[in-house]
Specification:
17% helix, alpha+beta
Amino acid sequence: MKNQKIALTLVSLAATIMLAACGGGGGGGNGGNTTGAAPSTPASSPATGNVATPQYVASTAQLAVFTTLNQQRQQCGFPALTENTVLDQAAQAHAKYMGQNGGNITDTEATGNPGFTGTTYSDRAVHFGFPNSQIVYSGGASAGYYTNATLTETQYGQQIAYEWLGGVYHIALGVWPITQIGIGWNEMTFNGFPEIQSSATIANLQPMTGNLPLTFPCQGTTGVAYMTAGETPTPPNTTSGTFGTPIGVSGNPTDNVVLQSGTVTDSSGNVINLQLLNAATDPNKLLPAFEAVAYPGTPLTPNTTYSVSLTGTINGTAFSRSFSFTTGSIVG
């Protein structure tokens, strides 16, 4: 198997969050509001480009990414993602850029390279008409995948979605209170099989409703990656860069979420103490205040049900969560 590669940049108003992640391969990333390609006229509002029903062609990988992320988010109470055709253009341009420049997975683009449309995710979104506003959040993620087996386009799309959901830092695509997404997809050939470059551009942080904070996975979630084979920067206290299914905990954009304890228990009663990351304790300084993550420092077992127990505070008020989820056979 050729190395899998994942990269992600998340840009907020309060800070620039920079990370790259890779499943045993290379990758790089940074973000910000630096000037890239000269932007076209900005759209009039963040809703410009939203479509009521997804326009991705049936049986395509893009539709599989969109559907998988939405299914997993919505079952746990997170807002559905709306396809935004402006963000689609930005994401597609970046996926193609990666293919045109050796297939390397990267968050940024370099002026003068083939396919350049903007340095950062925000630059590219604005270039294609998304509003360049100080009150609008935009960021994105990129990923790559290769296997010497024959997969359907739907399976490729699901794999990319579960890679993002299986990362301590990438699980943001599952738990952040965003409402808009655009998905780009590019395929090259390596040793006779597709080599994938994919990119997602996300936007529009909005308040959520429900019993906050929400978690992903949550009660009844199935099929999630039982392990992730490397993420850069490496989450602390992992075994050779591999770790088990992360659990993302998220409130509203103005909330402060802190985890205080966490365990997962299998059906035989074996208890695993989880690593806990909050904005204040994350050594990589990538988690925003409204998100925390708990994760096993070693891989879990595929196709196994685990019971979760979490305690923490949201804005200083205590909360606890107990639920069960079932892993699949996917490696993130």
